[in-house]
Amino acid sequence: MDGNGRWAAQRSLPRTAGHKAAETAVIDVIEAAHAAGIPWLSLFAFSTENWRRPDGEVDFLMELVRRTIRKHALTLHARGIRCRFLGDSDIRIPPDLARDIADLTTLTRDNRRMTLTVAFDHGGRRDIVRAARSLIRNRVPAEQVTEESFAHHLPYPDTPDVDLVIRTSGEHRISNFMLWQVAYAEWTFPHVLWPDFRATHFWECLDSYRGRERRFGAVRIPTPTGKS
Ligand code: IPE
Ligand code: MG
């Protein structure tokens, strides 16, 4: 979800105004994905690198996430959405927000219509390093370390590989997002800034994804009829 600061700058507003405006986009996309029957949706809300931003902006983001959780928790639950947070939501973030995160996770843990993963204080490299540590701590013999067994040591190992990544605002970077899980993801880079992103943009990205040929490194084998 990128472009909040630029959205605000275009309006001569403080960066925080862009973050505030982003709430509408977040809810719109969750609703759109839910309505489309998408079983897994992940939102990159805050990275391990975002702590480098000015204290005022970080504090604002923490408070905004807290308010958003409180405002929408019951609706998310009623929609059958399982909410979980990928990141260190109990170490650096304020205790009251950590509590709200834990409460939302517990409230919605048995929901299965859609899993909403909020990557918050998330770093893809950190997750990989931690998986390596976990393997070593569990004394897994080197020859038993496979891609599959390794993935079991990542947080939320039930998370499937990512099919489609949407990065808004025209930037073309991974920014340390779910590095392991995006290995074969398709990408779209809509130019729209995140606070302006709506269900219609989301559908455009899905349309683009539908048109892709996913070969996972293999080649397409033509059928005798010429159809595939
Ligand atoms: C994304 O918008 C929000 C977060 C990373 C929290 P930015 O704040 O990165 O917006 P730009 O890139 O400055 O426009
Ligand atoms: Mg940015």
From TrEMBL:
Its cofactor is Mg(2+). InterPro entries: UPP_synth-like (IPR001441), UPP_synth-like_CS (IPR018520), UPP_synth-like_sf (IPR036424). Mg(2+) binds at residues 2, 186. One of its GO terms (molecular function) is transferase activity. Binds 2 magnesium ions per subunit. The active site is at residues 2, 50. Substrate binds at residues 3-7, 15, 19, 47-49, 51, 53, 167, 173-175. The keyword Glycoprotein does not apply. Gene3D superfamilies: Decaprenyl diphosphate synthase-like. Its EC number is 2.5.1.-. It is an enzyme of class 2 (transferase). It comes from the Bacteria. Keywords: Magnesium, Metal-binding, Transferase. It holds the Pfam family Prenyltransf. Homodimer. Belongs to the UPP synthase family. Catalyzes the condensation of isopentenyl diphosphate (IPP) with allylic pyrophosphates generating different type of terpenoids. This is Isoprenyl transferase.
